[in-house]
């Protein structure tokens, strides 16, 4: 595997793409999309991460072994997040202690 | 140098460690090793992001309230500054691939200037303002709100995560000082550039952490 020298315009294009996405994510935050605000913000962040990983970090020219390592790492991160959130999201939290705001998992307190 | 040593070094360039077949294999091993380190970093920050997610789900209102006390303008400016430093770092690596000594030094200095600008903005416009507004836990924290306890927890996360991120940047700046020294001595003139490439990977990783911290801390929950 020889060294791949990327043309400067590729890096500049990626940079401009990242700046546009940053502007977009800020703009979207000021619009009320209910629960979709979080989804949009995280989707944009993931796209930005993929741009950085693919181009700035040269993963598109990396060996298959390096790619497998990276994919495995992200899979483990996904497991961490997925199992944590399924656990937390399915628990009953009847009442918040004082000073901590209303409970978001809406289970009415027993009468 | 003994005869044996000089005979040995004539067989391969000085930067090629003799347990590697060729420079490609050495580069490949270095890149893989660096990624392995970065994966441990991903799990390290991942644990923080997971605990942030747990408490944000539980105390959503309080976290939204805390998020609204942050300054989006400086957060966004810093995001742009850090992405800019990633561009100059990528160009420094490219210059190293092409053995362009002056360009390597210029782009590393630019990257360092942008990195220092990021930390400067954070300290000068954000953390100091947070201190005066009483938003730092254990340092005169005071927020008038029925959700004050939850807001305080949000700020614990905010300072720990941004502080840890800033610490990674300071480490990166230190490594770049070493790179500058190596570049000035002409270590990267003969087609050897692994240290620059690996520092680049580290710096881009730090950028990626911020790419997630910025929306999670400043934007999530909406600013409307």
Structure, described:
- The complex is a heterodimer of chains A (about 110) and B (about 220).
- Chain A has about 110 residues and is mainly α.
- Chain A folds into two domains: about 1-55; about 65-90.
- Helix content of chain A is about 60%, strand content about 0%.
- Chain A has three helices and no strands.
- Chain A has helices spanning about 10-30, 35-55, 65-90.
- The radius of gyration of chain A is 21 Å and the shape is flat.
- The N and C termini of chain A lie far apart (about 70 Å).
- The model of chain A has no long low-confidence stretch (mean pLDDT about 85).
- By secondary structure, chain B is an all-alpha fold.
- Chain B has one domain: Cytochrome c oxidase, subunit III, four-helix bundle (Four Helix Bundle (Hemerythrin (Met), subunit A)), CATH 1.20.120.80.
- Chain B is about 75% helix and about 0% strand.
- Chain B has seven helices and no strands.
- The model of chain B has no long low-confidence stretch (mean pLDDT about 90).
- Chains A and B meet through helix 1, helix 2 and helix 3 of A and helix 2, helix 3, helix 4, helix 6 and helix 7 of B.
Biggest sheet features of chain B: none
CATH superfamily of chain B: Cytochrome c oxidase, subunit III, four-helix bundle
Distance between the first and last residues' Cα of chain A: 70 Å
Q: Could you tell me the mean pLDDT of chain A?
A: 87
**Topology-level CATH name of chain B:** Four Helix Bundle (Hemerythrin (Met), subunit A)
Order of helices and strands of chain A: HHH
Number of strands of chain B: 0
| Spatial extent as radius of gyration of chain A | 21 Å
Largest interface: A-B, 62 and 62 residues
Helix content of chain B: over 70%
Shape of chain A: flat
Structural class of chain A: mainly alpha
Query: Which blocks of ≥5 consecutive residues of chain A have pLDDT under 50?
Result: none
Q: How large a portion of the residues of chain A is in β-strands, by DSSP E?
A: under 5%
From the coordinates shown, what is the CATH architecture of chain B?
Answer: Up-down Bundle
């Amino acid at each position: 595997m020889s060294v791949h020298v990327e043309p400067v315009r590729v890096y500049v294009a990626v940079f401009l793409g990242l700046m546009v996405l940053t502007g977009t994510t800020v703009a979207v935050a000021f619009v009320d999309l209910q629960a979709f605000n979080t989804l949009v913000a995280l989707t944009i962040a993931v796209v930005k991460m993929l741009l950085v990983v693919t181009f700035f970090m040269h993963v598109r020219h990396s060996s298959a072994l390096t790619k497998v390592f990276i994919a495995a790492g992200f899979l483990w991160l996904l497991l961490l997040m997925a199992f944590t959130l399924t656990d937390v999201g399915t628990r009953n939290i009847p009442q918040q202690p004082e000073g901590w705001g209303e409970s978001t998992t809406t289970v009415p307190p027993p009468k | 140098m003994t005869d044996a040593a000089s005979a040995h070094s004539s067989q391969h360039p000085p930067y090629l460690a003799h347990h590697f077949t060729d420079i490609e294999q050495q580069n490949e091993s270095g890149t893989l090793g660096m990624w392995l380190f970065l994966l441990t970093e991903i799990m390290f920050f991942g644990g923080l992001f997971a605990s942030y997610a747990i408490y944000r789900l539980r105390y959503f209102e309080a976290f939204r309230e805390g998020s609204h006390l942050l300054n989006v303008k400086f957060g966004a400016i810093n995001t742009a500054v850090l992405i800019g430093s990633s561009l100059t770092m990528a160009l420094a690596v490219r210059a190293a691939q092409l053995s362009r000594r002056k360009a390597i030094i210029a782009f590393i200095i630019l990257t360092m200037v942008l990195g220092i600008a990021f930390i400067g903005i954070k300290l000068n416009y954000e953390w100091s303002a947070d201190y005066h507004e009483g938003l730092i836990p254990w340092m005169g924290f005071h927020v008038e709100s029925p959700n004050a306890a939850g807001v305080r927890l949000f700020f614990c996360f905010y300072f720990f995560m941004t502080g840890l991120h800033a610490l990674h940047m300071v480490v990166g700046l230190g490594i770049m000082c070493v790179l500058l020294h190596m570049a000035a001595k002409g270590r990267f003139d003969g087609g050897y550039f692994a240290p620059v490439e690996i520092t680049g990977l580290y710096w881009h990783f730090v950028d990626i952490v911020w790419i997630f911290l910025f929306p999670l801390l400043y934007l999530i929950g909406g600013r409307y």
